[in-house]
Amino acid sequence: MDIEHTMLDIGRRARLASRAMARAETATKNHALTLLAAAIRLNADALRAANLQDMNAARAAGLAPALLDRLALSDAAIATMAQGLEQIVALPDPIGEISNMKYRPTGIQVGQMRVPLGVIGIIYEARPNVTVDAAGLCIKSGNAAILRGGSEALHCNQALAKLVKQALADAGLPQDAVQVIDTTDRAAVGALITMPQYVDIIVPRGGKGLIERLIREATVPMIKHLDGICHVYIDDKANADQALDIAFNAKCHRYGTCNTMETLLIARDIAARILPPLAALYQTKEVELRGDAEACALLAGYPYLTAATDADWSTEYLAPILAIKIVADVSEAIEHINTWSSQHTDTIVTEDYSRAMRFLREVDSASVMVNASTRFADGFEYGLGAEVGISTDKLHARGPVGLEGLTSLKYIVLGQGQIRQ
């Protein structure tokens, strides 16, 4: 296969399809998504079989537990994919929406119209559900998509790609509106991220190594996040029961996700009361705790305890490992987060309204929460139907990227024959 020419052809066809998608009616796009949701449910057995092939190959290759967790396609995950598409159908179509219309002294009206970005390239590892989430959001937002999934999910992604293409065709939309690259050659990624004549934006969802490579090589703009170093701060005004539940869930609900807590901060005045029972919960999951000097003193006898180093404050473990630091108050917690955070998701547990509002204002992250687990930082949980990824960038899109994040605004002007004097 000539990768460069193949990718250029994919890009050319995507650009042509994007023009048809930009003018597609809402009802037509919704029909395609509804057909796809039904096809996923109808073909659940085939999808599980394809995923089993991928899982067996991944285990044989020694894939890390975090990636195996992302790769697995359970019955619940299949149902969630279909449900996510139906949620996207129920969302308002942003395309063509006109806003901020104002009359100018000359008599013209100036405003803005929401339009698709065009062609979106999405690169991801494991996670076959991303194939459906990305396809659904791109279809509804009037974009064309080029999807490059990881080699570990090849069989499942190919099975899903067939369903997507059939749904598009049955709805009267171009099949090239969603193209799934079926080669595992890494050169395909290199080509995709360096053809701005056909691709308008790249959205990477993968490990740090992938993102760092794209940052170095891409000539197409990206919406991205590098790490998910998420924090929970337990304030001395926290509800103790809530604090235990949130800190346990944020770490142990799933280890391999970017919204999993990696550092726990606890106010000094409440640490002796909160940390021992919380450690007992972590012990049931054999979580290794890496504590500062104060935390280690409070956790004497904990079987999975080591002393934290500065490297722990900047590490995304994606594993049953948690860094713990005792801080004086909310000021020190905010300072620590803004110093070490990856600006993904951070939460405060407190009953003090003023401290909660201060935390929301001053923590410089894409998602900032009060009295809730960091695991809620997700497009599905935010009511976006799904997401193509999480952005910690500050330009264009920030946080979970849903329909609106896949659109842009252009200025429109309405006149009645005015000429500039």
Please supply descriptive tags for the structure shown above:
16 strands; 19% strand; 43% helix; 7-stranded parallel β-sheet; 4-stranded parallel β-sheet; alpha/beta
What does this structure look like?
This protein has 421 residues and is α/β, with parallel strands linked by helices. 43% of the residues lie in helices and 19% in strands. It contains 14 helices and 16 strands. A seven-stranded parallel β-sheet has the order 10-9-11-8-7-12-13, sandwiched between helices. The chain has a four-stranded parallel β-sheet with strand order 5-4-3-6, sandwiched between helices. The chain has a three-stranded antiparallel β-sheet with strand order 1-2-16, with no helix packed on it. Strand 3, helix 6 and strand 4 form a beta-alpha-beta unit. Helix 2 packs antiparallel against helix 5 and helix 5 runs parallel beside helix 6. The longest helix is centred in the N-terminal third of the chain and has 20 residues. The termini are far apart. The mean pLDDT is 95.
Itemize the secondary structure elements and their pairings.
Blueprint: H1 3-22, H2 26-42, H3 44-60, H4 65-71, H5 75-90, E1 98-103, E2 109-116, E3 119-124, H6 129-140, E4 144-148, H7 154-170, E5 178-180, H8 187-192, E6 201-205, H9 208-217, E7 230-234, H10 240-252, E8 261-267, H11 268-284, E9 288-291, H12 293-298, E10 305-307, E11 321-327, H13 330-340, E12 345-349, H14 353-362, E13 367-370, E14 389-391, E15 399-401, E16 407-414
Parallel strand pairs: 3-4, 3-6, 4-5, 7-8, 7-12, 8-11, 9-10, 9-11, 12-13
Antiparallel strand pairs: 1-2, 2-16, 14-15
Helix pairs in contact: 2-5, 2-7, 3-7, 5-6, 10-11
